[in-house]
Amino acid sequence: MDSLDLIRTFREVALRGSFSRAAAPLAMSKANVSKYVAELESRLQVRLLHRSTRTVRLTDAGRLLLERSTPLLEMMTLTQNELSEHAVQPSGRLRIAAPHGLGASSLPSILGSFMERHPKVSLSLHLSNSMVDLIEEGIDVALRVGTIQDTNLIVRRLRPVEFVVCAAPAYWDRHGRPLHPDDLSAHDALTYSLAGPQPHWRFEVNGRPHTVALKSRMEATDAAPLLAVAEQGLGVVCLPRLLLQQRLDAGVLEQVLAGHSPRDVWLYAAYAQRRHNSAAMRALLSHLEEHWQQPPPRRPEP
Question: In the chain, is it the N or the C terminus that has fewer CB atoms within a 10 Å radius of its CB?
């Protein structure tokens, strides 16, 4: 039996002065009411009530417990009410993990519109290209690109991710534009160092997976320096369109090999719980799906 249930039963008896009168509001039998009080006395090793055939009276210990338990139960009731509201009304703070590159995408504006829609929710955004342990770091939702290997996580596909091969127009003018993904092996690639000691890019050719080994001119743990070097005409990058669209539209970078992006790469939302998720977390997942479920049209191969 839970100690709080025992204390609630004792208080009902103490306030009503009778086991039988306490039974009805507790939805218990008189015998169980008496059993609960006896169990509480046994745990505390002190008599709380003087019993007679007609009434019960508080002992000194009983009066002390009645007095001290009042703020405790009031706090528990208030907490339960707040938790119940938390489950149905989005509120509180959510901790989100995402790769650095998403910080330069539409993610900040999407999170901003979420906060406008749910003013009682606060957000903490943790940007890292390393795999974050959601439980260890206290992360509610992790946004990840690629494949989720942790089978303990629940994942939602938000949108397919198109990878774009591009470089500055001046670079292509000097080195030539590739006509096939294999042509990239002769180019200066700008790669993620997290990809391992032998960098490669994945493509699709004739509907089948195709991998190209690269000559990496520069590697980095984040996309930002690779993009800066690419804009200087010093190499080729292969990054998600989410990060490149503004530069492509402005003509700063030029895409090649359109249509060869692998189709099995997704932007995921991963989280550790399936049941009893807060209303805030459910609202965030729905908001992300609303904004990212419809991907931009895939650009055909020229």
Answer: C
